[in-house]
Every structure is written in structure tokens, then in C-alpha cells.
Design brief:
mainly alpha
Length: 99
């Protein structure tokens, strides 16, 4: 039996937990957006799969890519911009995901 998007996202929430709190904050802001989309109207399967793949990248590379997107591989550029935007929106509205 295949997992639903909500179930997959709940599992990915644990993968967002990192040793680096800055990276974790970036990822959790984006995760929260994905979860809201999945609950509301469903989520693009490609986006979810790509996020799963991104979570396999080590913390140092991921943080570097978020701070300096020009250093990231081209395939990750759109998602990294979305992660940065989610973080900016969360910090501007003081809406943070629960730890």
C-alpha cells in the first residue's frame, strides 16, 4: 500500500531535523508550506519527490546552497529559492513550525 502525501510529509518532517539549527529552520519553513499545500489541495508529486532527494544532501552543502544559491547545482535552484522564500515569509510573519 502506497503512503499518502500527508504520511510521506510527516515522515519527511523527521528528516528536516538536522544537526545545524539554521538549516533545520530553513527546511522546516518549507516543509510547513508543503504540508499546508498537501492538506489544502494536494501536492505536486514531482515537488515532493525532489524535496525527499534534497533532504539526502549533507547539512554543510545544503546550508552553503541556501546562503549562496549560485554555488548549487542548477537542478536545485528553483527549490532553493522556494525554501528561502518560505523562510523569509515565516520570519516576517513570525509563524514558525513547532519543533
Amino acid at each position: 500500500m502506497a503512503l499518502s502525501q500527508i504520511e510521506r510529509l510527516k515522515m519527511l518532517r523527521l528528516a528536516c531535523r538536522r544537526g545545524n539549527s539554521e538549516t533545520e529552520s530553513l527546511l522546516m519553513a518549507y516543509w510547513q508550506n508543503l504540508f499546508a499545500m498537501a492538506e489544502e489541495s494536494g501536492l505536486n508529486e514531482t515537488r515532493l519527490t525532489q524535496f525527499e532527494r534534497l533532504l539526502q544532501v549533507n547539512d554543510q552543502d545544503l546550508m552553503q546552497w541556501c546562503l549562496r544559491p549560485d554555488t548549487a547545482p542548477d537542478e536545485w535552484q528553483p527549490m532553493l529559492e522556494a525554501i528561502r522564500a518560505a523562510y523569509r515569509n515565516a520570519s516576517e510573519s513570525n509563524v514558525w513550525p513547532a519543533p
